[in-house]
Amino acid sequence: MPVDFLRRKQKTEEGLKKSREGWFGKLRGIFRGQKLSLTAVGEVEEALLAADVGLGTTEKLLAAVKDQSPGSPEEHLSLLKQAMGRLLKQSSVPAKLFPGQPRPGDAQVVLVVGVNGVGKTTTIAKLAHYLKGEGYKPLIAAGDTFRAAAIEQLQVWGQRVGVEVIAHTQGADTGAVIFDAYKAAQARRANVLIVDTAGRLHTKHNLMEELRKIRRILERLNPEAPQHTLLVLDATTGQNGLAQARAFMEIVQCTGIVLAKVDGTSKGGIVFAIAEELKLPVLFMGTGEGIDDLTPFDVEEFVDGLFTTSQAAPAT
Amino acid sequence: MFDALTAKLTGVFQRLSGKGHLSEKDVDEALREVRVALLEADVNFRVARDLVARVREKLLGVELQQGLNPAQQVVKVVNDELTAVLSGGDHKLKPSPQAPTIIMLVGLQGSGKTTTAAKLALNLRRSGTIMKPLLIAADLRRPAAVDQLASLAKQLDMPVYTEAPATSNALKAATNGVRRAKDLDAPWAIVDTGGRLQIDEELMQELVDIKQAVNPHEILLVVDAMTGQDAVQVAGEFHKQLGLTGLILTKMDGDARGGAALSITAVIGVPIKFIGIGEKPDGLEPFFPDRMASRILGMGDVLSLVEKAEAVIDEKKARELEKKLRQSTFDLQDFLDQLKAVRKMGSLGQLMDMIPGMGAIKKRLPNGGDVDEYRLKQVEAIVLSMTARERRSPDVLDASRKRRVAKGSGTAVQDVNQLLNQFREMQKMMKQFAKMKPKQIEKMMKGTPGAPQLPRPR
Question: Is the preceding peptide bond at A102 cis, omega within 30 degrees of 0?
Fold first, then answer.
């Protein structure tokens, strides 16, 4: 199975590289035209739009580049890169998810939220694995008691990454699961409790209120909890991503975004608009279905990596 | 009509001179706004560009129609164009002459295939076959995906075919499942496949293999309505490899405008068969191109609302109610029934989404317009805490009874009083109503101020 995963991942990476070469190769091609002509601006605009950056943010980014005096393509490219990087860096990203060294028995809580099908459960498994690697002892609360077989899915993942999953049965009260899980985390001297929640559309008032209640329960257990509330965002999502971020931010005060499914051809460009409006940083990136496919998000690397993948400018 | 696009366009035309026809400049100004609307709805930028070009040609030199202002004129042409693109093909699933009709669901991870499979089974079952459709779990990779489908099938009392993920694979499960459907004489076989990226060559090959093995009549791509610009690439690749026959657009109960639907139909020309709304098993609805067009342009969905109301309000009950109204015997029990009928139509927030222009208003309301939801529940609880006699004649409710009702419904005595006052007001209105002759009522209804003028651009 792992071999299978690796091979597939390689294939996807190749596929992804192709698509990136297409996009950024095109950008480089445009900038090679020395002066940023009106048509070139139009083409850069389309490239950004194609990445789901959105019209408003695209226009702002272009404004930062357009009025500059003409220079080499590299200079133009670097100007755009800087503008994109600045946007994502408006809020400081903590070097580590939790300050200080992991201490036993001091359960830090990570609440994971998002709309349906963005990849919350998979992200939680990967996050647990990642934190284990960082020397933490994580515990998972199976808070999605709504979707059929969500608990079983999390339990299978728990076994794979060697992390205990505290679960009740489907239809049980999420609050009760969380309470038990928190007590269990204390009893087992775990230092991180990752709380899964059922996917919910941000427009469902009642479900969002339920989420508010979940947060309140955590706060009652520990006034500082949840130390992190992560919004999982699907990189395939378009402009609706901003509406999602707004709503979840308002209800549960998210501390960061996990951008999932970045291994596809989607660019996740909506994070620029989210960063601009909500100052909500991206903390992690999900890059595949394997347990190791979660990487801390590095703005420089994200923007840079996108630009440097292209060796040549193919004619697409 | 006060939705965003029309408002913007009206603004544009106010700045321009009012003429009998649209000048090139007018059109270009207006089309800029149209493009913004399309991009905000996640319509692929190339599709948006082509569409705007086509609309431009149609608008130039066209005489203004009587009764439509320039803004409405532009919206109408754009709306017609969108509707035309979305209308292509057959939006119904056709049963094959030889059962079972095999349907294969494919798509990216998290698009909602498994939930949709269950919804589809229920939908097809309700459409009148005697035998039940067979659900086939062919996602053996995602942990517990098989359990999820089996559990949904159990909820719906539908047969399901599963194989153990440890000892089988997707191809085997699908092949054996379809064979089982034939043995069972099932009218439909619904194959749920695992989510995959369209650039994952190995997993795409798996789908091609399944297709060759089971020979499906329909291959439906399940697409999340929130998908952005990439929808075109995703659908294009799935189509190239598998030859899609249709789309199902999921999570349409959110506030995404669903431009992906337009992008995909425009590029691969495959019809949308259903839309998915909500997580409940009956949340699968037929697709209507004109409604989708209005939604993409941000114009609401009036027809859906009307139909929902028609489906929920029982005609017999309505007649009984009318009789009661005439005899002024409307009591709290009737009040509760009415309330339940309204609630069955969905949350207030959901209803508001379907009314043009309400989207914008809703945003300004606290709690996104769902503020009354809680109160409705409260009212229901209060009435349910009353005895039959109290419901028939609320006047018997003295202080002690009110305290009991408040306690029973988890509310305060003030809440009970408030409800009773409202009910008395309502009764009073109804008495006046009852005195009127049918003609008068009709006249009054027509002249109701604030009754929405429902726009149906046709």
Answer: no
Picking from A248, A266, A271, A274 by the largest number of B CB atoms within 10 A of its own CB, the best residue to mutate is A266
- Tell me if the pTM is above 0.80: no
Domain end position, chosen among B86, B117, B142: B86
**B264 and B336, same domain (yes or no):** no
Which of B299, B327, B356 delimits the end of a domain? B299
Are B133 and B218 found together in one domain?
A: yes
Over 80: is that where the pLDDT of A73 sits?
A: no
Name the pLDDT band for B270 (thresholds 50, 70, 90): very high
Task: Tell me the residue range of the domain where B10 lies.
Answer: 3-86
Rounded Cα distance between A235 and A282, Å, is 12
Q: Does residue B383 fall inside a structural domain?
A: yes
- Is there a single domain that holds both residue B81 and residue B115? no
Q: B95 lies in a domain? A: no
Instruction: Tell whether A240 is within 8 A of chain B (Cβ).
Output: yes
Distance separating alpha carbons of residues B73 and B76, to the nearest angstrom:
5
In chain A the first and final C-alpha atoms are separated, in Å, by 36
CATH number of the domain where residue B55 is located: 1.20.120.140
The mean pLDDT of B82-103, rounded to a whole number, is 90
What residues of chain A lie within 8 A of the CB of B227, using their CB?
236-238
CATH of the domain at B128: 3.40.50.300
| Residue A55 touches partner B, C-beta closer than 8 Å | yes
Which residue of B36, B259, B373 is in closest CB contact with A55? B36
Does one domain contain both B288 and B431? no
Whether B405 and B390 have beta carbons less than 8 Å apart is answered as yes
Q: What is the pLDDT of residue B2?
A: 35
Looking at the fold, whether B226 and B275 belong to one and the same domain comes out as yes
Using CA atoms, how far apart are residues A70 and A76, in angstroms rounded to an integer? 8
Contact call for A148 and B148, based on CB within 8 A: yes
Task: Work out the angle at residue A59's Cα, subtended by the Cα atoms of residues A55 and A64, and round it to the nearest 5 degrees.
Answer: 155
Residue B435 confidence (pLDDT):
65
Nearest by CB to residue A239, choosing from B42, B143, B370, is B42
Same domain, B294 and B316: no
Q: Assess contact for B223 and B231: CB atoms under 8 A.
A: yes
Question: Residue A1 has what pLDDT?
Answer: 37
Mean pLDDT (whole number) for A305-312: 42
Asked if the structure places residue B234 within a domain, the reply is yes
In this structure, the answer to whether residues B82 and B118 fall within a common structural domain is no
Nearest Cα neighbor of B34 from B8, B62, B73 is B8
Average pLDDT for B231-251: 96
Q: Which of B203, B228, B370 sits opposite A266 (nearest CB)?
A: B228
State the complex-level ipTM.
0.85
Do B302 and B356 meet the contact criterion of CB atoms below 8 Å apart?
Answer: yes
> How many C-beta atoms surround the C-beta of residue B265 within 10 A?
23
Quick check: A127 pLDDT over 80?
Answer: yes
List strands edge to edge, sheet with A256-260: A165-166, A138-141, A192-195, A108-113, A228-234, A256-260, A282-286, A294-296
Say yes or no for a CB contact (<8 Å) between B40 and A239.
Answer: yes
Among B202, B230, B373, most A C-beta atoms within 10 A, so best to mutate, is: B230
Residue B54 lies in a domain: yes
Percent of chain A with pLDDT over 70: 80
Q: Report the number of distinct structural domains present in chain B.
A: 3
Q: Is residue A225 a contact partner of residue A110, using CB atoms and an 8 Å limit? A: no
Of A115, A205, A237, nearest to B370 by CB-CB distance is A205
Residue type, A162: G
pLDDT confidence tier of residue A43, bands split at 50, 70 and 90? confident
Do B122 and B269 sit in the same domain of this protein?
A: yes
CATH number of the domain enclosing B339:
1.10.260.30
Across A293-302, B7-16, B178-187, the highest mean pLDDT is recorded for B178-187
Angle, CA B222 vertex, CA B219 and CA B224 arms, to 5°: 165
